[in-house]
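Intended use. Records such as the Argininosuccinate lyase entry shown here are meant for training and evaluating sequence-to-structure methods. They are not intended to support clinical decisions.
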Amino acid sequence: MKGQDDFLLEEGSVFPGKTYVESVLKPVFEDQRDYLFEAMFDIHCAHVIMLSEQGILKKEEAAIMLRGIQKTAEIDPASLFYNPKFEDLFFMMEAKIAEEIGGELAGKIHMGRSRNDMGVAMYRLVLREKLLSTIDAANALSDALLNQAEHHTETYMTGYTHTQPAQPTTLSHYFLAIYDVLQRDIARLWSAFEQVNQSPLGAAALTTTGFPISRARTCELLGFRQVIENAYDAIAGADYLLESASSIMVLMVDTGRWINDFLQYVTREYGAFKVAEPYVQVSSIMPQKRNPVSIEHARSLASSAYSDAFAAMNMIHNTPFGDIVDTEDDLQPHLYRAADKAVRVLTLMRAVIATLKVDGKKLMEGASKSCITITELADTLARDHDISFRKAHSIASAIAIRSAAEGKELYEWKVSEINMIIQEFRVGISLEKEQWERIISPKYFVKIRSIQGGPAPVEVKRMIEERMCALERCCEKWRSTKEWLVNNQKELRTKSL
């Protein structure tokens, strides 16, 4: 067995030890390089500009610093690898800047700030872009859902409750339901974006600084919406991470539920949906197979995205209220991966839905079975014949039970046979043939349900029209936000003093 001295000999006598390097510093460096590189240099630029404007730096010094920062930012991050001479990417880049402008000037860049507020600012800059990408993908999926809804206002299908055939509806009504849930998911993402898009800069370690900095100016230069006023909150608060994680988790749970439906609808037995050729895979041994791998991967990725977001939440749970590593470099990649995977899910399902083929005849056949229009019999008896709904429900239930026992569908009953069952309840009424034909018709069932939010084509078309206008407003909000941030970033990166 290795003794303590032998172990220390391998590890080294000073920080960082070999194990710490391999377990922490090297993986953290690689994550920082892959995710935080650009954000770090944007913050350097904003801070130097602010220091110059505040008179903390001489303008000539700041101009040299800014050119050095911009020059160093041109390094290809893929060319960077962990070097034990530097604790992390921040110190490595500080050394690179020093090579450009000299150690004395490079050392002044850090006046009036800490790696604490700088780190939180980097995380927020990256996370807001991830959230915007997720919103963009969700908007694109929303568009595909509305397009399909527009084409299927009279594609009749079975609606389910408790996984059992319940009532006829339309595919358009179903797609709109998915769409509406997705819009609430998007609203949650926007809420998270607003919380993320706030500036902690100027909080320094947690008590601000004795230098006369302008927190408002760095906030403006980096495109943040506002300053997080309380400096302790700016460093200790982690709710922006929790809200981001929860918005992605809810999005993926909601999406996973209807993805699970799709995997049923594309089965050969159900036969309602046909996935386009680019998104199915043939078996290596069974040539007849059309495996819906695109949908399967989307379901799997949704679970993975949820798990990464949940991991971030768990890492924050029961941690101290302050600057801690739990909310920093080890946690952040979980959120970035969660957002990236969510984008993949939304993008993949958009492609599937946009190219989806629907077997309307097959869906209509299903909507004509399992007695799922029988509610309309109870409604007709109560509405047109002044029978209490409970008694009308009992009559309808008796017919449904007898249908199941005899293996008959409603359309296989003659109206005379139905009237004989009704007479058993001594209500003194009988149905006309035309009435019974309406009762067993999925089209009539849907048409008469024109109440707000119902599946009637006229009502669904109204909802589609309103939602198309609302989606355009949402997309415009995204475009204007993205354009503003891109222009802000471009101006910052090319600014001279």
